[in-house]
Inverse folding.
């Protein structure tokens, strides 16, 4: 069984040469990070992930959480690992110092989160959602609520959940029925929520549920939902824990994957109403939810990268060790020698590296935004807004292909659960669904992020990509790859023009546009990496084998992934007519 | 829960208008079939599949086979279903009359097998493998062996298995180590085989293992393997069953899917050697194996179609029933109204119909071959040979996408096992692996089927497609679709030219060429269907809604699938250099 190793060298390369980490540190006044602190952080994270969390990954798959007398009991070993995780301060990386946080840049937290998600995605979902909840509380909650709830979440003593979905309201939040009735300084919450990740467990002393519900005077639709804090245990004035609140996990889903992560049906108010506290103004739940969600969406995109990396490592080890086939001289060879296995491995490797580059870049752009002057903020916000659905949508879709290739490389052994390759495929299958399906990401991209500003933000991004490509210094061997990527920019412009001219087709062409942009951004960053690698390889102490491999991987990516851009464009240009042509009764 | 329904109307359309079934019946002297008998057969098969086998599909998934005291015990209910299946004569459809068969054309059997595979793929694997074994025995075994073994297999009293794979010999049969030592009129077989589908069960009185092993004087490599019949129970001279043979299932795999199908580790000769009988000449096992395998490969392609159809039906029902979203007028709508859900459903529907057309055509071509004059036989054999890897490779790969779309349409519910959508994805994942991986199919296509005749068979096929497209009478709305398909033919010719000019790149480009051809053949047949539909819609009694839908589905297929052809060509034209560039140590 292959063990997981954090791909430290590639992550460092992306930090140093794709996102200009030291420049970012200087910009945001954190020079200590560039000069050693970030190394220590990444080394420590890798150690915990590789040694503690990764070995629990299969255990969680085989012995998922169960609903017992005390509520949900997580997989044996998870609680101890969580304690170690929290005590080491990992939940506090990006939180403000005022709440016990370390105020580190998001991009460092992203690299660290890659470790957690690759090591054990089911486990790492718990801190991922807690992080989103912290963001939402910091942005929208009153000082009093922040004081009570944020610090113990930052310390990891407590965890948090997002309670959005109801049986009749999946992607359609307008249909939410849960109710909140005012009672003194708090509200009484009643309703049922489904698909609540880590909705209950015994790893932390308290669980803070962020719950969408309607006030009695709420208008219909999404403009009538509000966000509430509903703690599992009520919190006394001194911060100590009081009574058990009327909020319970009543059943667990039997899922295709992420068995280690309990997915709960939560019932609020079976005994008269759970006590909850309003976050922000009444009827502004959607905005609060989006703060939480945007954070979580990038986090799910990161899961796409992370599970792909894990699947890649597993397949790579198998391809190296498995002897299959005989050369003419009688010597037997490993799977690596077979061109089609190589093709699959290279699709995995180059796909993972392109995702990592885009992921860290999107995250670093978030850091720039946080420290931006008023002048720069608008453009940076637009850029982050544009990246989010692509990171979530494209990367989680690509993760389906990468994890499936991981199974295929194992041949028959890939279909046998003991091998472990199938778990990554099963686990990955949730990624294009939760926190907004691929279709929802695409609607966000074409609607809120593109049509609403008449394509300005996207045009600006494409111009920047075009300019950078035009000025890139690349080895001659990559001239074809560069041309492909430049053609991709032209294709993207054409697709955007189609969208702007045919806004009614937006819902029909959205996914194809989103995928097109994902592949293009991946190609742009892979070529940026190749250019940097060539430049760096002239330095005397350079790891020339690694740097040459970066260039060759970019080459492969451009040859094997970029042709998909023209395919997506052709589909976009065909428009949406043939989608809706058939009468419903004829399906 | 949606129930499975055999898509009788589409299957009949393909039989009547894509493969010219009545012409075929006349050609092979089976006019009774065209005039009613085939209707009765398909109706009966649909009834058994829908009512008996389909309800056991989920049961098999949840309560897979177990290894007990008696050997392997299959899922409760399977034995009774199998008895009904055998007693109704279904295993005997295509077998010769001399052995109790009905000598019906393969294409009818293919339509019937679609029912079994859609209803319950895990169950249907058992007769599928038995069918392959019958073919191998009929083609290669002595009259004595045929007399003893074929009739009870045809009647369904016994079932059969294929014992190829060993722990160190997956796709690489040269590495087979099982041994066969002569002893009087029989041989003593020893060795271990893995991944033996339905290697043991209690549904039939006897199980006939076809086992690849080496004789003591065997040359090394694939030229030294022979095929043996190894019955679970020895057969007395009068046909009655004798002693238990020294061949046992010693463990079962814990698999991602097809839980209802026991996948056995088989041990031969633990107590001195299993008694076996040589099939054909010594050292000709590979040829025997290919007879069995070619039949099974088309059968696995059919599984790709069948599980896709099942997943499509499941997703369609959900999309019709699930209410999600609200129109401006306040009315709530089902998922079907959402363009991106439609896009996914149309990808499923049109993909399934293209697969069905190709599957039945390949099968009917096999019938023509069987009844061909010497003059025609060569070309027909070449055509069947060409279709086989495309049917197996392209259709099982497409089934991954279609079953995954089925999960996606269900949103969060798709990830919950109770829904049932995830089972199709899990079950389908074996299809591009067993009976030769996708990579192996591609090697077969580019090597044995294309380079070895300098591309003649493929050139001929492409010419026929081109000529038919040039003469097609299609509605004006499909002129763009037709052009796309014609461009696809040009792309395919270019890809073939690349292969012929760069034979060393064959293993690197094979999968892309195979996928390219699959999409192209699908487009050709969808357009053939559209042309026939337009023609038929002029008849007074025509089902015009169905016929219009056929045209619209073809339209969608051409717009959404055919752009993949140029993508595959671009990858092929890039060659294989970037695949192998990276040093193994750098992965």
């Amino acid at each position: 069984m292959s063990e997981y190793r954090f791909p430290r060298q590639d992550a460092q390369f992306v930090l140093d040469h794709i996102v200009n980490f030291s420049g970012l540190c200087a910009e945001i006044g954190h020079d200590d990070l560039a000069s050693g602190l970030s190394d220590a952080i990444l080394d420590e994270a890798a150690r915990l992930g590789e040694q503690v969390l990764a070995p629990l990954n299969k255990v969680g798959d085989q012995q998922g959480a169960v609903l017992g007398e005390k509520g949900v009991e997580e997989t044996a070993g998870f609680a101890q690992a969580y304690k170690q995780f929290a005590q080491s301060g990992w939940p506090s990386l990006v939180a403000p110092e005022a709440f016990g946080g370390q105020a580190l840049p998001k991009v460092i937290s992203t690299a660290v989160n890659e470790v957690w998600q690759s090591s054990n995605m089911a486990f790492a979902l718990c801190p991922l959602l807690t992080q989103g909840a912290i963001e939402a509380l910091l942005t929208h909650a009153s000082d009093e609520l922040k004081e009570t709830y944020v610090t113990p979440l930052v310390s990891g003593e407590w965890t948090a959940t997002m309670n959005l979905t109801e049986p009749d309201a999946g992607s359609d939040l307008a249909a939410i029925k849960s109710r909140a009735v005012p009672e003194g300084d708090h509200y009484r919450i009643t309703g049922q929520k489904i698909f609540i990740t880590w909705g209950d467990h015994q790893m932390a002393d308290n669980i803070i549920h962020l719950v969408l519900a309607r006030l009695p005077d709420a208008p219909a639709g999404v403009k009538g939902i509000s966000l509430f804090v509903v703690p599992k245990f009520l919190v006394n004035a001194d911060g100590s824990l009081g009574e058990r609140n009327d909020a319970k996990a009543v059943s667990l889903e039997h899922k295709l994957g992420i068995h280690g992560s309990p997915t709960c049906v939560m019932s609020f108010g079976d005994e008269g109403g759970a006590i909850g506290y309003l976050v922000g103004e009444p009827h502004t739940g959607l905005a609060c939810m989006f703060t939480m969600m945007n954070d979580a969406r990038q986090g799910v995109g990161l899961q796409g990268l992370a599970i792909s990396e894990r699947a890649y490592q597993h397949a790579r080890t198998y391809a190296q060790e498995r002897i299959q086939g005989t050369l003419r001289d009688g010597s037997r060879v490993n799977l690596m020698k077979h061109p089609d296995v190589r093709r699959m491995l290279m699709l995995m490797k180059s796909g993972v590296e392109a995702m990592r580059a885009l992921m860290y870049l999107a995250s670093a752009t978030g850091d720039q935004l946080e420290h931006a002057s008023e002048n720069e903020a608008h453009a940076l916000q637009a850029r982050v807004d544009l990246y989010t659905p692509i990171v979530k949508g494209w990367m989680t879709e690509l993760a389906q292909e990468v994890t499936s290739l991981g199974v295929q490389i194992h041949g028959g052994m890939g279909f046998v659960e003991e091998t472990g390759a199938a778990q990554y495929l099963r686990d990955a299958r949730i990624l294009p669904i939760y926190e907004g399906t691929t279709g929802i990401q695409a609607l966000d991209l074409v609607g809120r992020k593109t049509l609403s500003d008449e394509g300005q933000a996207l045009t600006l991004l494409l111009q920047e990509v075009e300019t950078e490509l035009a000025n890139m210094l690349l080895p001659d061997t990559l001239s074809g790859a560069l041309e492909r990527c430049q053609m991709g920019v032209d294709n993207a412009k054409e697709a955007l023009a189609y969208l702007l001219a045919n806004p009614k087709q937006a819902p029909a062409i959205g996914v194809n546009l989103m995928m097109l942009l994902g592949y293009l951004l991946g190609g742009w960053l892979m070529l940026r990496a190749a250019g940097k690698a060539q430049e760096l390889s002239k330095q005397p102490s350079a790891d020339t084998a690694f740097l040459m491999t970066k260039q060759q991987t970019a080459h492969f990516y451009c040859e094997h992934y970029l042709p998909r851009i023209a395919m997506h464009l052709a589909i976009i240009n065909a428009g949406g007519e043939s989608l809706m042509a058939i009468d419903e009764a004829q399906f």
User: Anything to note?
Assistant: Chain B has a mean pLDDT of 96. Residues 351 and 557 of chain B are 7 Å apart (CA to CA). Residues 55-88+120-283 of chain B form a domain with the Butyryl-CoA Dehydrogenase, subunit A; domain 2 fold (CATH 2.40.110.20). The longest strand of chain B covers residues 186-197.
